[in-house]
């Protein structure tokens, strides 16, 4: 059984995107570490190293989506990453299924190029400023269908990922997140969200330093 691992910055961007637009459906892409993939075959471990917020208005395969996919793919190649999945959050609080998610054609296009593609659905019912669980449902493409994956096979690199992202939500960091809708309105904005990535790294390093200090005291 393959395992899926998430870096904190990838998970954070998914949650922050959904939090910035609670009144809208949102979607984005998942990037995997290409160096750890054997090929594009099924049933292999996948490390999701980043997420790229796409839209809160333009959810479907339009010229805007094509521009975004092309630009993201080019950037990913430079960083030795590959587009390996798709995420979405539904507008309606009660809708937590793939069938209700926007932009499914984008997800299918990703699966055409990467047979092990992932589809993350934000679980609105578990979503809040204090995350007690990952608040996502993970599906993987297999035999032409999206199949729900047991969260036991999903891991996070950082033990304190929920604490870190909860802290960011409480501080209102979601207001600083840039998706492609924002970027296409103002090309000076950073759709890679480097500032958020640096904040995640800083919070993670601070927590790890605190733990190390406490261990030495013990």
TrEMBL record:
One of its GO terms (cellular component) is EMC complex. CDD domains: MPN_UPF0172. InterPro entries: EMC8/9 (IPR005366), MPN (IPR037518). Residues 4-145 form the MPN domain. It comes from the Eukaryota. It holds the Pfam family UPF0172. Belongs to the EMC8/EMC9 family. PANTHER family: ER MEMBRANE PROTEIN COMPLEX, ER MEMBRANE PROTEIN COMPLEX SUBUNIT 8_9 HOMOLOG. This is MPN domain-containing protein. The lineage of its organism: Eukaryota, Metazoa, Ecdysozoa, Arthropoda, Hexapoda.
